[in-house]
Amino acid sequence: MFATYCRTLKTNVNFVSILQRLESTLVIAEHNNEAVSPITQNALTAAKKIGGDITVLVAGTKCGPVSEKISKAKDVARVLVAESDAFKGFTPESLAPLIIATQKQHNFSHIVAGASAFGKALLPRVAASLDISPASDIIGITSADTFVRTIYAGNAIQTLKIKDAIKIISIRGTSFEPAALEGGSAKIEQAPAGDYKSTLIEFVSQELAKSDRPELTSAKAIVSGGRGLKSADNFKLLYDLADKLNAAVGASRAAVDAGYVANDLQIGQTGKIVAPNLYIAVGISGAIQHLAGMKDSKTIVAINKDPDAPIFQVADYGLVQDLFKAVPELTGKL
Ligand SMILES: Cc1cc2nc3c(=O)[nH]c(=O)nc-3n(C[C@H](O)[C@H](O)[C@H](O)COP(=O)(O)OP(=O)(O)OC[C@H]3O[C@@H](n4cnc5c(N)ncnc54)[C@H](O)[C@@H]3O)c2cc1C
């Protein structure tokens, strides 16, 4: 009987691996024509979990360096490149038709991108055009058609099975380790040619905020400030502390809405999702919408003068003190 069980098990295992080989995933690369965005590497790991062949689509203006880098990633079978002025500014209006044309030509079982501003603007357009229901912000992959995501601002975890023939998912970067861009040698081919210039929108220019600090979503340490900081000028206290820790600076929505910092620093349900090794929350109460963006951080430190602030419920270390006394003291000791 044991032998029969083993034979059945072996057959099932073979069957699963055959099914996995039938999967073919298209990963949409996010980049700036020179460097690969870290979330693309997270998406590659997610694609690997799905199983089967991985193709990466690199669309841009002069994006040769990016295709080269991605072609070196282990487990990537093919890189499809589309270079055109139509992709200036990476507008979803021009990229969506390219992805649809690529899908029609290659018939992938999965289309994956990061749940970043780029992926969030792009995938719903692709999904609507293909008449498919996308699944966003996936944090786990159980099988090729079953995925895990958070709901109710991170208060519940949902496992969902997608019945559509094509699975279109965006993945949460912090939930998948970044795949190394080495160890492989994928072939580089042309993506389907076409006139992808949008009649709806024209990219004019962009101004990028330059900062020597680490990027929020990939920083190992983050010092984050809330309404308790009371003014934009007082955020200097956090920048001084962040400099000592080589940390990025983040903020609650209340601090952003009050104009203390720019909105690209917002962490939470409607901001960025982060999971650094160290998260220091200063003058932040810990509303669930804020926790949704940072509670997966490895070590959470909270500084708040209110001992009942909800942030202390998720904090590994809590300091009940006036931040205007505690933060300069901490910075001085580092
Ligand atoms: C749909 C929706 C989406 C949202 N999305 C987000 C989101 O993405 N991110 C987000 O952060 N919020 C979000 N919010 C808002 C959220 O509900 C809270 O309003 C917000 O997080 C509060 O920010 P805060 O903790 O800075 O401010 P407050 O709640 O006002 O807390 C300030 C804290 O500072 C402390 N404090 C004050 N002075 C000092 C001092 N001198 N020393 C020490 N401590 C002090 C106080 O004790 C208090 O705990 C969202 C809300 C909604 C409805």
Elements, N to C (H/E): HEHEHEHEHEEEEEEHEHEHEHEH
CATH class of the largest domain: Alpha Beta
Please, what is the CATH homologous superfamily of the largest domain? HUPs
Largest sheet: 9 strands, mixed
Silhouette: elongated
- What structural class should be given to the helix and strand makeup? alpha/beta
Poorly predicted ranges: 1-11
Radius of gyration: 22 Å
Find the count of extended strands (DSSP E, 2+ residues): 14
Q: Going across the major beta sheet, what is the strand order?
A: 7-6-5-8-4-1-2-3-9
Mean pLDDT: 92
CATH fold assignment of the largest domain: Rossmann fold
- So, CATH architecture of the largest domain? 3-Layer(aba) Sandwich
Beta-strand content estimate: 15-25%
Bound molecules: flavin-adenine dinucleotide
Straight-line distance between termini: 65 Å
Please, how many helices? Answer: 10
Percent helix: 25-40%
Number of domain units: 2
Domain Electron transfer flavoprotein alpha/beta-subunit N-terminal: 25-207
Organism: Ceratosolen solmsi marchali
Binding site for FAD: 227, 252-253, 266-270, 283-290, 304
InterPro entries: DHS-like_NAD/FAD-binding_dom, ETF_a/b_N, ETF_a/FixB, ETF_alpha_N, ETF_asu_C, ETF_asu_C_CS, Rossmann-like_a/b/a_fold
Task: Walk me through this protein's architecture.
By secondary structure, the chain is α/β, with parallel strands linked by helices. It folds into 2 domains: 23-190, HUPs (Rossmann fold); 216-333, TPP-binding domain (Rossmann fold), CATH 3.40.50.1220. It contains 10 helices and 14 strands. The protein has helices at residues 2-22, 38-50, 64-71, 92-106, 117-129, 236-245, 253-257, 288-294, 311-314, 323-333, and strands at residues 24-28, 53-60, 78-83, 110-114, 135-143, 146-151, 156-161, 167-171, 187-190, 221-225, 248-251, 278-282, 299-304, 317-320. Strands 7-6-5-8-4-1-2-3-9 form a 9-stranded mixed β-sheet, sandwiched between helices. α6 (236-245) packs parallel to α10 (323-333). Flavin-adenine dinucleotide binds next to α7, α8 and α10.
